[in-house]
Amino acid sequence: METRTKLQKSFNWIAIIGFLAYWLASADNTLAQTGWSLQSANQGVSDILIIPRLNKETAHFYQVGSGFNEIRKSIDGGTTWTTLTIPGQSTLLLRILPDEFTEGVGFVLATNGLWRTSNNGATWAFTSISIPSGSLRDISGFTVNGIGWIVGDGGKIFKSTDRGVTWTEQSSNTTDHLYAVHASSNNNAVAVGANGRTVRTSNGGA
Protein backbone atom coordinates (compact mmCIF):
# COMPACT_ATOMS: atom_id res chain seq x y z
CA MET A 1 0.00 0.00 0.00
CA GLU A 2 1.27 3.46 -0.88
CA THR A 3 2.02 5.76 2.05
CA ARG A 4 1.93 9.51 1.62
CA THR A 5 3.40 12.08 3.99
CA LYS A 6 2.38 15.72 4.07
CA LEU A 7 4.93 18.40 4.97
CA GLN A 8 3.86 21.88 6.04
CA LYS A 9 6.02 23.56 3.41
CA SER A 10 5.69 24.72 -0.18
CA PHE A 11 8.34 22.97 -2.28
CA ASN A 12 9.35 23.89 -5.81
CA TRP A 13 11.94 21.27 -6.79
CA ILE A 14 12.33 17.49 -6.48
CA ALA A 15 15.15 15.06 -7.29
CA ILE A 16 15.31 11.28 -7.15
CA ILE A 17 18.51 9.32 -6.53
CA GLY A 18 18.22 5.63 -7.30
CA PHE A 19 15.00 4.06 -6.06
CA LEU A 20 14.49 5.38 -2.55
CA ALA A 21 16.23 8.71 -2.04
CA TYR A 22 14.09 11.77 -2.61
CA TRP A 23 15.08 15.43 -2.25
CA LEU A 24 12.82 18.46 -2.28
CA ALA A 25 13.78 22.13 -2.16
CA SER A 26 11.75 25.18 -1.19
CA ALA A 27 12.08 28.91 -1.63
CA ASP A 28 12.07 29.47 2.15
CA ASN A 29 15.44 27.96 3.05
CA THR A 30 14.27 24.39 3.59
CA LEU A 31 15.37 21.03 2.22
CA ALA A 32 13.73 17.65 2.83
CA GLN A 33 15.10 14.23 2.03
CA THR A 34 13.97 10.60 2.25
CA GLY A 35 11.91 10.10 5.38
CA TRP A 36 10.91 13.79 5.05
CA SER A 37 13.13 15.24 7.75
CA LEU A 38 13.61 18.99 7.26
CA GLN A 39 16.93 20.80 7.29
CA SER A 40 17.97 24.39 6.71
CA ALA A 41 19.58 25.34 3.41
CA ASN A 42 20.58 28.80 4.74
CA GLN A 43 19.19 30.37 1.57
CA GLY A 44 16.15 30.19 -0.69
CA VAL A 45 16.82 27.39 -3.17
CA SER A 46 16.38 27.97 -6.91
CA ASP A 47 18.11 24.85 -8.23
CA ILE A 48 20.05 21.79 -7.10
CA LEU A 49 22.61 19.88 -9.16
CA ILE A 50 23.15 16.26 -8.12
CA ILE A 51 26.21 14.29 -9.20
CA PRO A 52 25.32 10.67 -8.40
CA ARG A 53 27.63 8.36 -6.51
CA LEU A 54 27.08 4.78 -5.32
CA ASN A 55 24.39 5.80 -2.85
CA LYS A 56 22.61 8.89 -1.54
CA GLU A 57 25.01 9.28 1.39
CA THR A 58 27.93 9.96 -0.98
CA ALA A 59 26.11 11.90 -3.72
CA HIS A 60 27.48 15.36 -4.43
CA PHE A 61 25.01 18.26 -4.25
CA TYR A 62 25.36 21.85 -5.46
CA GLN A 63 22.63 24.41 -4.76
CA VAL A 64 22.05 28.02 -5.76
CA GLY A 65 19.41 30.55 -4.84
CA SER A 66 18.95 33.75 -2.87
CA GLY A 67 22.50 33.58 -1.50
CA PHE A 68 23.34 35.69 -4.57
CA ASN A 69 27.08 35.03 -4.80
CA GLU A 70 27.09 31.63 -3.11
CA ILE A 71 27.10 28.07 -4.38
CA ARG A 72 26.55 25.61 -1.56
CA LYS A 73 28.17 22.17 -1.86
CA SER A 74 27.68 18.89 -0.05
CA ILE A 75 29.70 15.72 -0.59
CA ASP A 76 27.94 13.61 2.04
CA GLY A 77 24.40 13.44 0.70
CA GLY A 78 23.37 16.79 2.17
CA THR A 79 24.33 16.21 5.80
CA THR A 80 26.84 19.06 5.81
CA TRP A 81 27.40 21.96 3.41
CA THR A 82 30.28 24.26 2.45
CA THR A 83 30.01 27.55 0.57
CA LEU A 84 31.75 28.49 -2.67
CA THR A 85 31.75 32.20 -3.51
CA ILE A 86 31.54 33.79 -6.97
CA PRO A 87 33.32 37.16 -6.62
CA GLY A 88 31.35 40.08 -8.03
CA GLN A 89 28.03 38.25 -8.28
CA SER A 90 25.14 40.29 -6.83
CA THR A 91 21.87 39.07 -8.37
CA LEU A 92 19.68 36.01 -7.84
CA LEU A 93 21.19 32.73 -9.06
CA LEU A 94 18.66 30.62 -10.97
CA ARG A 95 20.24 27.47 -12.40
CA ILE A 96 23.40 25.41 -12.02
CA LEU A 97 24.53 22.74 -14.47
CA PRO A 98 27.67 20.99 -15.70
CA ASP A 99 28.90 20.62 -19.25
CA GLU A 100 28.36 16.89 -19.61
CA PHE A 101 30.92 16.62 -22.40
CA THR A 102 33.80 18.72 -21.01
CA GLU A 103 35.60 17.94 -17.76
CA GLY A 104 35.68 20.81 -15.26
CA VAL A 105 33.27 23.08 -17.14
CA GLY A 106 30.10 24.27 -15.40
CA PHE A 107 27.59 27.09 -15.51
CA VAL A 108 25.52 29.17 -13.12
CA LEU A 109 22.71 31.26 -14.59
CA ALA A 110 21.94 34.60 -12.93
CA THR A 111 19.09 36.96 -13.76
CA ASN A 112 21.44 39.18 -15.77
CA GLY A 113 23.99 36.82 -17.30
CA LEU A 114 25.92 33.58 -17.14
CA TRP A 115 28.84 32.52 -14.96
CA ARG A 116 31.15 29.91 -16.49
CA THR A 117 33.96 27.91 -14.91
CA SER A 118 36.47 25.71 -16.71
CA ASN A 119 38.33 24.53 -13.59
CA ASN A 120 35.64 23.01 -11.36
CA GLY A 121 34.70 26.32 -9.76
CA ALA A 122 38.13 27.61 -8.78
CA THR A 123 37.58 30.71 -10.96
CA TRP A 124 34.56 32.11 -12.81
CA ALA A 125 34.07 34.28 -15.91
CA PHE A 126 30.88 36.34 -16.37
CA THR A 127 29.05 37.06 -19.63
CA SER A 128 26.45 39.82 -19.36
CA ILE A 129 23.18 38.94 -21.11
CA SER A 130 20.80 41.74 -20.22
CA ILE A 131 17.07 41.99 -20.79
CA PRO A 132 15.74 45.54 -20.26
CA SER A 133 13.18 45.50 -17.41
CA GLY A 134 13.31 41.72 -17.32
CA SER A 135 15.20 38.61 -16.27
CA LEU A 136 16.81 35.54 -17.74
CA ARG A 137 14.92 32.40 -16.73
CA ASP A 138 16.52 29.14 -17.89
CA ILE A 139 19.44 27.58 -19.73
CA SER A 140 19.41 24.34 -21.68
CA GLY A 141 22.09 21.75 -21.45
CA PHE A 142 24.79 21.85 -24.12
CA THR A 143 24.98 19.39 -27.00
CA VAL A 144 28.11 17.39 -27.78
CA ASN A 145 29.02 20.15 -30.26
CA GLY A 146 28.71 22.88 -27.62
CA ILE A 147 25.36 24.36 -28.67
CA GLY A 148 22.91 25.66 -26.05
CA TRP A 149 20.19 28.23 -25.45
CA ILE A 150 19.13 30.69 -22.75
CA VAL A 151 15.58 32.08 -22.50
CA GLY A 152 14.00 34.89 -20.53
CA ASP A 153 11.35 37.56 -20.20
CA GLY A 154 9.84 39.21 -23.23
CA GLY A 155 10.36 36.14 -25.40
CA LYS A 156 14.13 36.58 -25.40
CA ILE A 157 16.27 33.70 -26.68
CA PHE A 158 20.07 33.60 -26.85
CA LYS A 159 22.20 30.90 -28.50
CA SER A 160 25.78 29.79 -27.92
CA THR A 161 27.81 27.65 -30.30
CA ASP A 162 31.02 27.60 -28.23
CA ARG A 163 29.96 26.01 -24.93
CA GLY A 164 28.70 29.23 -23.36
CA VAL A 165 31.68 31.50 -24.03
CA THR A 166 29.71 33.85 -26.33
CA TRP A 167 25.98 34.35 -26.93
CA THR A 168 23.90 35.69 -29.83
CA GLU A 169 20.26 36.80 -29.61
CA GLN A 170 17.73 35.01 -31.80
CA SER A 171 14.11 35.84 -32.65
CA SER A 172 11.44 33.77 -30.89
CA ASN A 173 8.52 35.48 -32.66
CA THR A 174 6.82 36.11 -29.31
CA THR A 175 6.94 38.66 -26.50
CA ASP A 176 5.57 36.23 -23.90
CA HIS A 177 7.97 35.45 -21.08
CA LEU A 178 9.83 32.16 -21.66
CA TYR A 179 10.50 30.16 -18.51
CA ALA A 180 12.15 26.90 -19.63
CA VAL A 181 14.18 25.58 -22.57
CA HIS A 182 15.43 22.16 -23.63
CA ALA A 183 17.79 21.25 -26.48
CA SER A 184 17.66 17.71 -27.87
CA SER A 185 20.23 18.20 -30.66
CA ASN A 186 22.26 20.86 -32.45
CA ASN A 187 19.18 21.95 -34.43
CA ASN A 188 16.22 20.99 -32.25
CA ALA A 189 15.09 22.89 -29.15
CA VAL A 190 11.83 23.84 -27.47
CA ALA A 191 10.98 26.62 -25.03
CA VAL A 192 7.80 27.16 -23.00
CA GLY A 193 6.46 30.14 -21.14
CA ALA A 194 3.61 32.42 -20.16
CA ASN A 195 0.09 32.15 -21.61
CA GLY A 196 0.73 28.57 -22.70
CA ARG A 197 3.36 29.71 -25.20
CA THR A 198 5.55 27.04 -26.81
CA VAL A 199 8.22 27.84 -29.39
CA ARG A 200 10.30 25.30 -31.28
CA THR A 201 13.16 25.20 -33.72
CA SER A 202 14.33 22.43 -36.01
CA ASN A 203 17.05 24.46 -37.71
CA GLY A 204 19.05 25.80 -34.78
CA GLY A 205 16.95 28.94 -34.50
CA ALA A 206 17.96 30.32 -37.90
Structure description:
This protein is an all-beta fold. It has strands at 11-17, 21-26, 30-33, 38-40, 45-51, 60-65, 70-74, 82-85, 93-98, 106-110, 113-117, 125-128, 136-139, 148-152, 157-160, 168-170, 178-183, 189-193, 198-201. Strands 1-2-3-4 form a 4-stranded antiparallel beta sheet, with no helix packed on it. Strands 5-6-7-8 form a 4-stranded antiparallel beta sheet, with no helix packed on it. A 4-stranded antiparallel beta sheet has the order 9-10-11-12, with no helix packed on it. Strand 15 and strand 16 (168-170) form a beta hairpin. 30% of the residues are buried. Residues 1-38 have low confidence and may be disordered.
Topology summary:
Blueprint: E1 11-17, E2 21-26, E3 30-33, E4 38-40, E5 45-51, E6 60-65, E7 70-74, E8 82-85, E9 93-98, E10 106-110, E11 113-117, E12 125-128, E13 136-139, E14 148-152, E15 157-160, E16 168-170, E17 178-183, E18 189-193, E19 198-201
Antiparallel strand pairs: 1-2, 2-3, 3-4, 5-6, 6-7, 7-8, 9-10, 10-11, 11-12, 13-14, 14-15, 15-16, 17-18, 18-19
**Largest sheet composition:** 4 strands, antiparallel
Number of helical regions: 0
Radius of gyration equals 17 Å
- The chain-level structural class is mainly beta
Q: If you average the pLDDT, what whole number results?
A: 78
Strand order of the largest sheet: 1-2-3-4
Multimeric state = single chain
- How many extended strands? 19
Helix amount, in percent? under 10%
